Amino acid sequence: MPIAAMALVVVLLGAFLWVLHRNERDEEALALIKDALWVEQNLHFQLTSDEDKLERLAEALGHGTVDVRQFAAMARLVVNTNPAIERLLWLDADGSTRLAEPPLARSPAAHAEPEDPPGRLPRLDAMRIAGSSGLRTFGAPYRIDATDSGFDVAVPVYRDGALFGTLVGVFSFEQMLTHHVPWWFAQRYQLEVVDATGAVLGAKSRITAPGSMAGPAPDPARSHVIPFDPPGHGVALVATAYPSDSNVARTILVAAIFALTGSALWSLWSLRRHIAGRLRAEEALREEHAFRKAMEDSLTVGMRARDLEGRITYVNPAFCRMVGLGEEELVGCGPPMPYWLPDEIDRAEAALSDVLAGRAPEAGLEMRFRRAGGERFDALIYEAPLIDANGRQTGWMGSVLDITERKRSEELARQQQERLQQTSRLITMGEMASTLAHELNQPLSAIASYCTGCLNRLRSDRFDTEEVAAALEKLAAQAKRAGLVVRRIHDFVRKRDPKVVPCSLAGVLEDCVGLTGADADRLGVRVELDAQPGLPPVTGDRILLQQVVLNLMRNGIEAMARTPSAERRLTVTVRRSDGGSCEGGICEGGICEDGGVLLTEIRDRGCGVTPEVAERLFSPFFTTKREGMGMGLNICRSIVEHHRGRLWFEPGTDGGARFLFTLPIHQSAPHPATHPAPPPDAPIPDTDAAEAAE
């Protein structure tokens, strides 16, 4: 027991001395950091004060309130009263030195410019940056002379809003340390200014009296590095402490006293402190865990972590609810995942390979997953590297968004747009009622006349069979014409899915000219159709294309309500333009088809479109009509762009407006040079028997 007690006393004594030594080193390190930070702040304060003086001097130069002699005097005063500033330079906008204080050395040759000063390249870089940014700029450090290094502060000088020159202050590291670092700091530490490569630019250390022995060298292990920014460019302050005088006697005395009287108390107190600290750490850990858990539970975005081999290492409750599986069912799973679709496993594995290879798309990846109950949903996934506390990548963290509702909303918006187009056609049909009555009046009148004539011939018992047959043929032609009119209006307003087939654009234009005939006659407008012969068909929906042309033609007819009667002319032109020629600006906006396009122009001589209206011409719900809805041109542009074309507006050369749109030629159509296209008025065959019967 005595031996064990003595051994315990020795152990406790050694532990106490070690703890005491460690605390002293920690206190010295803390004092070093505090003193170094104080010196760094003091140097920044002095440097900021000098910079403010340079800016005031630059403002005086920019305002033109001082001449060269006054500036030289002011610069001399700044250099003399601020020891850290070695020299002030006034440079022109091209970098030439106008004035230097103190003056630069000149070459012996007569009329020679001053010698190239040290650090000219860093100075020119700082001057260019200051001139482009309008702010003071710090140059890279350079060697001023054989014993000193420094840096430049470039302040741009503006006069009348233009760069007039640059005021450059040359700062010396040695002078800054000599005049701005207190003596007591140099007694305790060695202070050095180093660049990014570790080269010493300036230093201040303990001053040793002449003839006396130099003190102990500073201890490199007890140093502290602080970035010196400004001036930046990798410059740093390195404060290294000198070894402190050892106090072994005091340490031994204190150790002996406390070893005999306080060994038990010290042990208990240390144990109590350790236990209290551990309890506090555990409580902080529990609070942190509870806070993190509350954040995870409140998220609506699914979070999923995977290791470098693709196995799931973590999921949050939102992801579990999204896929309908528990955390214990997901953690540890590798590919194929239980929420992958069986028919899309290849695509999911390819996406996983891209993620593990670091090729995850920044815009996110859309995938389709399934829930535990079999329901499918659309997900948008963003992947990011998972970095641990040591800076190593341990896997990938994915954010999973359920975009099923968003895609459903987009589909609903598309359907609403289609219904809006149908409503627009119905409104157009109401406005075309007068056209229908006008067009049906002539064939019905002709039918009645032919019927009356035939009845009169038959009742007279004196008739020629050939003559009656000819009249009946004409009657049948007029009846067919009336049926075509009704069929054309019925097809236009009937709700149906778009039927994209090859169709004759010239035939569409001729139909539209016929439909707008009543409105044109009512307003006295002459409609002219100019279609090149043998135009190839385009790929599109005939009814939707009729809606576009009718809207544009009716707009042009209504725009000429106040135009003199002799000048009311609406011209509709269609011509072919090859994709390579890009005639008429067809390639604007990126629309240029290899097989060529058909360019349609509808030109009126109305009131035209003002620049203010032209900016919003195709905006939804914008209209210049008193009873308009503001959707006609917007729907027309949507229809043309749906057909891979382009619709735009140009002012007319002789007044009025020109609306132009392009449509790509049907790719399988033969070239008109070898296989002429059918004439524009040839009917498009209809293979739908149900529609024909209706």
Automatic annotation (TrEMBL):
Biased composition (Pro residues): 673-683
Stretches assigned to the PAC domain: 363-415
GO MF: protein histidine kinase activity
Enzyme class (EC, first level): transferase
Entries under Pfam families matching the protein: HATPase_c (PF02518), HisKA (PF00512), PAS (PF00989)
Residues in Histidine kinase domain copies: 435-667
Catalysed reactions, semicolon-separated: ATP + protein L-histidine = ADP + protein N-phospho-L-histidine
Residue ranges of the TM segments: 252-271
InterPro entries, per database record: HATPase_C_sf (IPR036890), HATPase_dom (IPR003594), His_kinase_dom (IPR005467), HisK_dim/P_dom (IPR003661), HisK_dim/P_sf (IPR036097), PAC (IPR001610), PAS (IPR000014), PAS-assoc_C (IPR000700)
EC number(s) recorded for this UniProt protein: 2.7.13.3
Region (Disordered): 667-694
Domain of life: Bacteria
Keywords noted in UniProt: ATP-binding, Kinase, Membrane, Nucleotide-binding, Phosphoprotein, Transferase, Transmembrane, Transmembrane helix, Two-component regulatory system
Positions of the PAS domain: 287-359
Protein name, per record: histidine kinase
Source species: Azospirillum picis
